Amino acid sequence: MSKAILGMVVSIGAVVLLSGCGASGQQFSQFTAPKPDRAQVYVYRPESFVGGGVYYDIHVTNATNPDRIVDELVNGSYMEFDVPSGENEVWGKTEAKSSVTLDVKTGETYCVRGGVGIGFLVGRPNLEIVDMATCKSEIVGTKLAK
User: Fold this and answer.
1) pLDDT > 70: what percent of the chain?
2) Is residue 75 part of a domain?
3) pTM value?
């Protein structure tokens, strides 16, 4: 009997701990138009059990900003930010770094999908540029980071 109770307590504890690992902001509703002379970037991470507790900061590096931390990308979250035209590196890091480089054009919208891969001690970020059709179908299930 005590093993059954212990198992139940451990299960409830795991659920409580893992429930705090996802995004809690406003549900994604629509894309916003870029500001004049800027481009809009969305970084999102679809909800996934694998690596659900792993999170990492998203950074942007460009000619005007050597390293800007945008926000923390958690399981089931998205963030949006504007960038200047030209080359912009979007990256995240835990024990390893993952980055994508966007050749940004003014007035355009760009999407980067984040995920978590297998790491030695902790999950590794995995960032990839996706097309708007993919982004539109996947970002709807996410919530605003912080």
Assistant:
1) 82
2) yes
3) 0.81
